[in-house]
Structures are given as C-alpha cells and as structure tokens.
Input
Amino acid sequence: MPILTRRNLLKASAVAGAYGVGLGLAGRFTAAQAAPEPMVLKTQKTEAKIMDVGPTKNMLTWGEHGMPPVIRMKKGEPFAARLINGIDDPTTIHWHGLRIPNKMDGVPFLTQPYVYLNDAFDYAFTPPDAGTFWYHPHCNTMTQMGHGMTGVIVVENPKDPVFDAEIVLNLRDWRLGGDGQFIQQFKPRDAARAGTFGTVRSANWQQQPQYDAPAGGLLRLRLAIADVTRIYSFKLDGAAGTVIAIDGNPVPERFTLDTLDLGPGERLELAIRMPDDEGAIVSLSDIHSTNPAVLATFRAVGNSLKRDVRDLGPLDANPVAKADLSSAEHIPLQLSASADKGPSDSICGSLGYTFWAINKVAWQGDTPDPTAPLAELKLGKSYVIDMENLTPHLHPIHLHGMSFTTVSSNTKQVMPLVSDTYLIEPNEKVQLSFVADNPGDWLLHCHIIEHQKTGMTSYLRVV
Ligand code: C2O
Ligand code: CU
Output
C-alpha cells in the first residue's frame, strides 16, 4: 500500500484541480463521440480459489467477483468505460497497446489524476487497431496487478477470417504461500535481477484449465502475458500452431510455432488446427524456466470439421503509419543498472529502491514533478529509437500511445513486426522506428513491474 503522507495528499489534490475533474472532461469527450453507455469497471476486493487449499483472500478485480472481464471492443467504433474505485487505494486504468488520446492513457500525473476510493473516471475512445490487448492499473501496480487487476481486451475486426472457436487466456502467476494466501509481493534482491517470480501459475485464474474445441476445427487462441515478472517461452504439443499475430498486430509472415519468447505485457495469437480424433488433447506449455509448466489444455470434441489452416485469409494490417527511415531522427536509449538516490515517495506506491535507469536517469516514481522527457518529438515526424541493453537481464520495454516497427538487431534476425513492447536481450542493440503521430506525454518502461518501479521508466513528449 502507498504511504499516504499529508504532503502527498496536498500534491495530489493540487494536480486534480489543475486537470479538472475526470468526469467532467471525459463527459464532454464522450458526448462529442456519441459513445455508447459506459461499461462499469468497479475495482473490488474479492476471494477466489486459485489453489486447492481454499480461497485466496485479498484478491483484487474489476466487477463483482472472479477474473477481470475480457473486454470486447470493435475496431473503429467508440468505446466507453466508467472506472469506479471500490478499494481504498488510488487507481487508474491503462489500456495497454491501444493507440488512443493521451488523456485516456491512465498514467497518474502524466495524463490524469488518480481515482480515489468512491471516485470515478470516465474513459472514452475509439480503438483504431484490431487485435489482442490488455488493461491494468498504472498506480501501485506491484500490489494491484499482483493481486489480480490485469484483464484482456479483444478488439474485433468484422473482416477477420472465420474460426471455429476462440479461446482467450489471461496468463499470470500469483505469489501465494502453502495456505493459498498472498506472501510478500517482491524481494529487493530479485528486483535488482530478473524480478520476483510467482509461486503458482495460472490461466484465467485457474491451474491448467481445459477447454473444448471442435475436432479438426480452427481454434483462434489469444494469449496475454499479464504477469508482473515472468518471460514465457510458448510451446504447443498435440497439434501445430500457426503464429498469426503478436502484440495486437498481424505478423508480416505467418510461421509455425516452435518456441517463442515473449515478455510481460506481450500478446500472442495462434491459429491451431485441432486434431481430428475426438478426445485428443493439445497442450500449451511455457518452457522458459527450468520448471516447464503446462498452462492449459484443449480437447477435441465432435466429428472432425476437416479444416485446413491454409484456408484462413489474412488479418488486416492495422493502420499504423510507416516511418521514413531516411529522414528519421535517432533517439539513443540505454538501459542500465543504477545506484542512484532512492525514489521519491509516491502515492502510487514506491518500492523504496532504485536499481535501474534509462540513459542514466532513474525514474523517481509517479510524482507531480517527473524528470524531463527522454526526448521531445515533433508531431508527424519519423523517429528511430536506438535501444541498447547494458544489463545482464531481459527487459520487455513498452511504449505507450504509439506502435513501433522493429528495424534491426545486432544479435538476431528480426521480422518487421509492429508492436508496443520489445523484449530486449542482454547486450542487444535494436532499432525501433515509428511516426510520432499521437500528441502528449507517453510513458516508456520495462514491463517487469519491479524494474519499472525501481527506475526503468521514462517518457517521450510529442508536441
Ligand atoms: Cu502495460 Cu505502462 O503499461
Ligand atoms: Cu526490466
């Protein structure tokens, strides 16, 4: 829980005043867009049975109970949600991967005031891209996300090819003790390394759930890595999986899944041709760690539909502008360890340590006076981020508000994937190009939450 000092409270209310009340601002916005009735997302404390020993207490979600809802939106159609805070901890919602106006981005201080207990904030926007995305708070995330507040977003495109089934998996771990109750969310010595891992794995808040899908049919499997720490290496047994989209964008060329590494915040879409035999099992595993784990299984049911994955038409590319590499300005970005001064108090939860930095500057936490932006970009101009990892760890680096294209890497062949998160390896140098076409202050950070909260955060200003 954040430390509520009087100084913080004063700062917080000053910012709320400067921005105006969230409801009022967003209200005008929704009227102009003729948005639908807002979906209500009320934060709530809940209990759920993750382990056999009995219900886990102090879980957090949106809605009455259970996992946060899978939110379905339609590409190019207005969406609205009213966040109501039912927990005694300020919160916001960030719509990870959606290219929407800055005011709707959900970052405390940078884009909106945080929402206190019994307060509300109206979000309204039109998702421009179809694909698999997700949502989570951007305040006191170690606790709020660690205890359950991570949900999946599916943005549908009516022109997508037709599948015989679709399954969405919200993948994440829990830090639970043998009694099924939460234990300390992180360990400082791990935060200074790869991060603190969960003790219990889950898919859709269940351990190894099984789902039915038509035998011989084409299953669209949407995976979202909503964990705060873990990097996954996906592997499929019992059927072939074709990778059709990564991070909400169709892959330039489809390929058969062998193993694929993706970090926290990333998403994967597979087309799986289910086996012909009724009862045959397909299993999805994560083989990244020394303890490979089955995450979920899929059982073939009914008579074979005898479908062929090659019959699937393409997914539409999302309307992301292509950067002009010849005129692009380069932005150097170095990820390093830091032994800088400790972070400032933050109402959005400080972990109390600084271990990491971007261009030698360690983020001081969500405060009303953040460090200067990493760079100030001109609206409409092309840029290339030259990102270099000087640490011995992997980092899933996420940019808010704009999608980039991977241009090149010094360690491997990369496909020109459009994305919002790049999992950078130790000693890797990568070039990410994009057009600065969305005005505002856009956060950029490692999505290993312990890294994000101990310095590995910055932002780009587009004016
Ligand atoms: Cu999932 Cu700041 O992001
Ligand atoms: Cu990191």
